[in-house]
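[Q] Does anyone have a clean C-alpha coordinate version of this?
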Amino acid sequence: MARKNTLQAHERRTRALMTAPMAAFGVLLVALPLIYVLCTSLVTGGKFQFGMPLTLANYKALLREDYLKVFANSLQLAFFTTAISLLVGYPFGYCMARAPRKWKALLMMLVIIPFWTSRLEDPPAGQRPGQRRAPLAGADSEEHQVPRFLRLGAAGDGLLPDFLYDPAVPQRGG
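[A] Here you go.
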Protein backbone atom coordinates (compact mmCIF):
# COMPACT_ATOMS: atom_id res chain seq x y z
CA MET A 1 0.00 0.00 0.00
CA ALA A 2 2.85 2.36 0.83
CA ARG A 3 4.42 1.72 -2.59
CA LYS A 4 1.12 2.60 -4.33
CA ASN A 5 0.91 5.94 -2.46
CA THR A 6 4.53 6.68 -3.35
CA LEU A 7 3.83 6.03 -7.03
CA GLN A 8 0.74 8.24 -6.96
CA ALA A 9 2.70 11.05 -5.28
CA HIS A 10 5.45 10.67 -7.90
CA GLU A 11 2.87 10.88 -10.72
CA ARG A 12 1.35 14.04 -9.20
CA ARG A 13 4.79 15.67 -8.93
CA THR A 14 5.62 14.66 -12.50
CA ARG A 15 2.34 16.13 -13.80
CA ALA A 16 2.94 19.34 -11.87
CA LEU A 17 6.49 19.65 -13.24
CA MET A 18 5.30 18.98 -16.78
CA THR A 19 2.50 21.55 -16.62
CA ALA A 20 4.51 24.26 -14.82
CA PRO A 21 6.36 25.55 -17.92
CA MET A 22 3.13 25.79 -19.90
CA ALA A 23 1.38 27.55 -17.01
CA ALA A 24 4.28 30.01 -16.71
CA PHE A 25 4.17 30.53 -20.48
CA GLY A 26 0.43 31.22 -20.31
CA VAL A 27 0.77 33.69 -17.46
CA LEU A 28 3.72 35.48 -19.00
CA LEU A 29 2.51 35.70 -22.61
CA VAL A 30 -1.27 35.69 -22.22
CA ALA A 31 -2.46 36.79 -18.78
CA LEU A 32 -0.02 39.64 -18.14
CA PRO A 33 -0.59 41.33 -21.53
CA LEU A 34 -4.35 41.04 -21.06
CA ILE A 35 -4.11 42.60 -17.60
CA TYR A 36 -1.97 45.42 -19.05
CA VAL A 37 -4.52 46.05 -21.84
CA LEU A 38 -7.33 46.13 -19.27
CA CYS A 39 -5.42 48.60 -17.09
CA THR A 40 -4.57 50.75 -20.13
CA SER A 41 -8.25 50.84 -21.11
CA LEU A 42 -9.14 52.24 -17.67
CA VAL A 43 -6.89 55.32 -17.89
CA THR A 44 -6.89 58.41 -20.06
CA GLY A 45 -3.87 59.31 -22.13
CA GLY A 46 -3.24 55.88 -23.62
CA LYS A 47 -0.37 54.65 -21.44
CA PHE A 48 -0.83 52.99 -18.07
CA GLN A 49 1.40 54.01 -15.18
CA PHE A 50 0.94 53.06 -11.55
CA GLY A 51 -0.84 55.73 -9.52
CA MET A 52 -2.95 57.03 -12.42
CA PRO A 53 -6.66 57.58 -11.72
CA LEU A 54 -8.86 54.86 -13.20
CA THR A 55 -11.96 55.80 -15.22
CA LEU A 56 -14.64 54.13 -17.33
CA ALA A 57 -14.74 56.99 -19.88
CA ASN A 58 -13.18 54.84 -22.62
CA TYR A 59 -15.89 52.21 -22.18
CA LYS A 60 -18.58 54.91 -22.20
CA ALA A 61 -17.19 56.14 -25.53
CA LEU A 62 -17.84 52.69 -27.02
CA LEU A 63 -21.56 53.40 -26.85
CA ARG A 64 -21.32 56.21 -29.42
CA GLU A 65 -23.38 55.65 -32.55
CA ASP A 66 -20.41 55.41 -34.93
CA TYR A 67 -18.76 52.71 -32.80
CA LEU A 68 -22.03 50.79 -32.54
CA LYS A 69 -22.35 50.82 -36.36
CA VAL A 70 -18.84 49.41 -36.68
CA PHE A 71 -19.62 46.69 -34.12
CA ALA A 72 -22.87 45.80 -35.92
CA ASN A 73 -21.10 45.62 -39.30
CA SER A 74 -18.35 43.45 -37.80
CA LEU A 75 -20.87 41.06 -36.23
CA GLN A 76 -22.85 40.87 -39.48
CA LEU A 77 -19.68 40.12 -41.46
CA ALA A 78 -18.63 37.47 -38.92
CA PHE A 79 -22.08 35.85 -39.06
CA PHE A 80 -22.21 35.63 -42.86
CA THR A 81 -18.59 34.47 -43.10
CA THR A 82 -19.31 31.71 -40.60
CA ALA A 83 -22.54 30.71 -42.32
CA ILE A 84 -20.94 30.52 -45.77
CA SER A 85 -17.96 28.59 -44.37
CA LEU A 86 -20.30 26.08 -42.75
CA LEU A 87 -22.50 25.74 -45.83
CA VAL A 88 -19.48 25.09 -48.06
CA GLY A 89 -17.08 23.43 -45.62
CA TYR A 90 -19.21 20.70 -44.06
CA PRO A 91 -20.48 19.22 -47.33
CA PHE A 92 -17.01 19.42 -48.85
CA GLY A 93 -15.46 17.81 -45.77
CA TYR A 94 -18.08 15.06 -45.90
CA CYS A 95 -17.28 14.43 -49.57
CA MET A 96 -13.57 14.34 -48.77
CA ALA A 97 -14.12 11.82 -45.99
CA ARG A 98 -16.28 9.57 -48.21
CA ALA A 99 -14.17 9.92 -51.38
CA PRO A 100 -12.05 7.04 -52.64
CA ARG A 101 -8.42 7.15 -51.54
CA LYS A 102 -7.15 8.14 -55.01
CA TRP A 103 -9.28 11.33 -54.99
CA LYS A 104 -8.46 12.52 -51.46
CA ALA A 105 -5.13 14.15 -52.39
CA LEU A 106 -6.78 16.09 -55.24
CA LEU A 107 -9.61 17.25 -52.99
CA MET A 108 -7.10 18.34 -50.34
CA MET A 109 -5.27 20.37 -52.99
CA LEU A 110 -8.55 22.13 -53.80
CA VAL A 111 -8.64 23.22 -50.17
CA ILE A 112 -4.99 24.28 -49.97
CA ILE A 113 -4.50 26.10 -53.29
CA PRO A 114 -6.59 29.18 -52.35
CA PHE A 115 -4.25 29.77 -49.40
CA TRP A 116 -1.26 29.70 -51.73
CA THR A 117 -2.78 31.98 -54.35
CA SER A 118 -3.53 34.69 -51.80
CA ARG A 119 0.21 35.42 -51.87
CA LEU A 120 0.08 35.98 -55.65
CA GLU A 121 -1.98 39.14 -55.47
CA ASP A 122 -1.56 41.79 -58.13
CA PRO A 123 0.91 44.48 -57.07
CA PRO A 124 -0.33 48.06 -56.60
CA ALA A 125 -0.15 50.40 -59.59
CA GLY A 126 3.39 51.38 -60.51
CA GLN A 127 4.94 48.45 -58.65
CA ARG A 128 6.67 45.49 -60.26
CA PRO A 129 5.71 41.95 -59.16
CA GLY A 130 7.88 40.94 -56.20
CA GLN A 131 8.87 44.52 -55.41
CA ARG A 132 8.26 45.35 -51.78
CA ARG A 133 6.07 48.25 -50.71
CA ALA A 134 7.79 51.32 -49.32
CA PRO A 135 7.58 51.53 -45.52
CA LEU A 136 6.53 55.20 -45.70
CA ALA A 137 4.37 56.78 -48.37
CA GLY A 138 6.82 58.38 -50.79
CA ALA A 139 9.89 57.23 -48.82
CA ASP A 140 12.31 55.61 -51.23
CA SER A 141 15.54 56.52 -49.46
CA GLU A 142 18.02 53.82 -48.45
CA GLU A 143 17.52 54.55 -44.72
CA HIS A 144 13.92 53.24 -44.93
CA GLN A 145 14.81 49.96 -46.66
CA VAL A 146 14.47 46.69 -44.75
CA PRO A 147 17.40 44.27 -45.17
CA ARG A 148 16.71 41.64 -47.84
CA PHE A 149 16.89 38.70 -45.40
CA LEU A 150 14.09 40.23 -43.30
CA ARG A 151 11.54 40.57 -46.10
CA LEU A 152 8.42 38.36 -46.38
CA GLY A 153 6.12 37.11 -49.11
CA ALA A 154 4.70 39.70 -51.48
CA ALA A 155 6.52 42.36 -49.50
CA GLY A 156 9.95 40.82 -50.00
CA ASP A 157 10.46 37.12 -49.10
CA GLY A 158 11.76 37.19 -45.50
CA LEU A 159 10.58 37.27 -41.90
CA LEU A 160 8.55 40.47 -41.55
CA PRO A 161 4.81 40.22 -42.26
CA ASP A 162 3.14 42.45 -44.86
CA PHE A 163 1.40 44.66 -42.29
CA LEU A 164 4.81 46.07 -41.31
CA TYR A 165 5.06 47.56 -44.79
CA ASP A 166 1.78 49.46 -44.56
CA PRO A 167 2.37 53.03 -45.78
CA ALA A 168 0.26 54.36 -42.88
CA VAL A 169 2.60 52.81 -40.30
CA PRO A 170 5.81 54.78 -39.71
CA GLN A 171 8.92 52.59 -39.99
CA ARG A 172 12.56 53.03 -39.08
CA GLY A 173 15.08 51.85 -41.61
CA GLY A 174 16.94 48.54 -41.34
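[Q] Thanks! Anything notable?
[A] The radius of gyration is 25 Å.
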